[in-house]
Design brief:
Layout: E1 11-13, H1 22-38, E2 43-50, H2 57-62, E3 67-73, H3 76-81, E4 95-102, H4 108-123, E5 128-131, E6 137-139, E7 151-153, E8 158-160, H5 162-171, E9 177-179, E10 198-204, E11 207-218, E12 221-226, E13 236-239, E14 242-245, E15 248-251, E16 258-265, E17 269-281, E18 285-291, E19 296-303, H6 304-307, E20 309-316, E21 323-330, E22 338-346, E23 349-354, E24 357-363, E25 370-377, E26 382-389, E27 395-400, E28 406-407, E29 410-417, E30 435-440, E31 444-449, E32 453-462
Parallel strand pairs: 1-2, 2-3, 3-4, 4-5, 6-7
Antiparallel strand pairs: 7-8, 9-25, 10-16, 10-18, 11-12, 11-15, 11-17, 13-16, 14-15, 17-22, 18-19, 19-20, 20-21, 22-23, 23-24, 25-26, 26-32, 27-31, 28-32, 29-30, 29-32
Helix pairs in contact: 4-5
């Protein structure tokens, strides 16, 4: 590296998001062998491969690397659901470095999802010894990747995202020892966890199509009815070339993720139906529902993946970003043929019908409402609680601290909350940021956790 003398290099990474190929399996061990012989003091970080499936992790363990690096860019819902990802990992195997991760956008909701995941990483700090959010820096209008970045800037202003603040809140309040915590609650699902609630819409992927007779009903009442008799249809396109033509809603562009949204639906049980016809291109239709202000959404991808299968997916942020698969079924769409499409939503229950044939029948897991991590800071004599609330409802709670003789009645809370879909930008770089406040505490005390929030609570205790 141009250094004239050794400079106390502690770690070296071998590989980055490698694929599991015969060539990799053949050559990787040679690098490990030589490094062990020449520099046994340097710890080797291997690669688990790209994605949460970590295809190379066991191979890293077989080659006795010290740490294995895993990378994934998933939806916020994935991070919330996988908060217990590391709880049952084999502790005799290679340690883990989560070297790149992000949840696809920079809203407050994305940051909360990442905080939920970090509570699980902190709980498993004996196994996951390092983490690194990525990417770090992005200049406005000069990026080559997606919308998730830790810090945005232009020639005058630095914008710290809600995700940045989560990283700082966790890193500056680490503590020395993880404490056992138990959380129990009666979950009241907020609007963020009901698939029926949110906007409905239509779209295509590298395909041209027309749509008609879009209807949403609930309890026998019609909430939405659009037959495109007027050219001024109440649809709002986010991408693509949509227009009303000859009594149908046409999409004539060949872009990926062309989506147009219609009405906001506020009900837990609905039926969403429409007709669609493919007029050109390589795939089928996108039927969007449950699109929230946070940017999260569901869609039924009919004739996707090169017109080879139908898939029910959940995503957040950009429609071209990563999505979580909820169900998949082989199938294709013919050009020039009208299809009757129906999606029935009842709480977490999703049923998808194509020409009255049931294609998907899925019970959507509700998002875990609350994640808590508790640590002891020996130097300050404090218990530090990190609390992430991923739903859009306040939670009235009671805290009980066992194993201490006394708790100071004054505690400090660092709270970041707001609209779950809010972002920081050049106009308001500090729109979402942590605010400190004093709270009343004790060995047992009542505490309200704000909707859509991440906070750090520091309690002075006597053992």
């Amino acid at each position: 590296m141009g250094h004239p003398a050794p400079f106390n290099l502690k770690y070296i990474c071998l590989g980055n998001e490698e694929h599991d190929t015969p060539e990799f399996r053949e050559r990787f061990p040679y690098f490990v062998k030589v490094l062990r012989e020449k520099h046994p003091e340097i710890k080797i970080i291997g690669t688990s491969g790209l994605g949460p499936g970590i295809p190379l992790y066991d191979f890293m363990n077989k080659n006795n690397v010290d740490i294995s690096d895993e990378h994934y860019y998933e939806s916020p819902q994935w991070f919330i659901r996988n908060r217990t990802r590391f709880d049952n990992f084999d502790r005799s195997k290679t340690k883990i470095f989560v070297g790149e991760y992000a949840s696809g956008a920079n809203t407050l909701y994305n940051a909360i999802a990442e905080a939920v995941y970090l509570t699980g990483i902190e709980r498993n700090a004996d196994l996951v010894i390092m983490t690194a959010y990525a990417p770090t820096y992005a200049r406005y209008n000069y990026t080559q990747w997606g919308s998730a970045n830790l810090i945005w800037f232009d020639q005058k202003t630095v914008v710290r995202t809600p995700s940045y603040h989560v990283q700082q809140m966790f890193s500056c309040n680490r503590g020395d020892r993880y404490l056992t915590s138990e959380v129990s609650y009666t979950e009241k699902a907020g609007k963020g966890s009901i698939p029926a609630r949110g906007q409905v819409g239509v779209g295509t992927w590298n395909t041209q199509a027309v749509f008609d007779d879009i209807r949403v009903t609930a309890n026998g009442k019609t909430l939405v009815s659009e037959t495109f008799d007027s050219v001024n249809a109440p649809m709002k396109a986010t991408a693509g070339a949509f227009k009303v033509h000859d009594g149908v809603y046409s999409q004539s562009s060949m872009v990926d993720g062309a989506v147009s949204l219609l009405a906001q639906v506020d009900a837990e049980k609905i039926t969403y139906s429409l007709r669609a016809k493919k007029t050109g291109g390589s795939e089928g239709f996108l039927v969007v529902f449950g699109r929230k202000d946070s940017g999260s959404y569901y869609w039924w991808n009919i004739g996707g993946w090169g017109n080879s299968r139908h898939g029910l997916e959940k995503g957040s942020g950009a429609y071209t970003g990563g999505k979580e698969s909820l169900a998949s079924h082989n199938g294709s769409i013919e050009t020039g043929v009208w299809y009757n499409i129906r999606v029935e939503l009842d709480g977490p229950h999703i049923k998808c019908y194509l020409n009255d044939e049931l294609i998907h029948d899925v019970i959507e897991q509700t998002e875990s409402a609350l994640a808590v991590s508790a640590v002891e800071d020996k130097a300050s004599g404090e218990v530090i609680l990190k609390i992430a609330n991923a739903i859009d409802a306040d939670m009235t709670t009671e805290f009980n601290l066992d194993g201490v003789s006394a708790v100071s009645p004054k505690a400090t809370a660092l709270v970041m909350s707001g609209d779950s879909g809010a972002i920081n930008d050049l106009d308001e770089p500090d729109r979402i940021s942590p605010k400190a406040r004093e709270v009343r505490a004790g060995k047992k005390f009542n505490f309200t956790i704000p909707a859509s929030s991440v906070q750090v609570l520091r309690l002075k205790v006597k053992k």
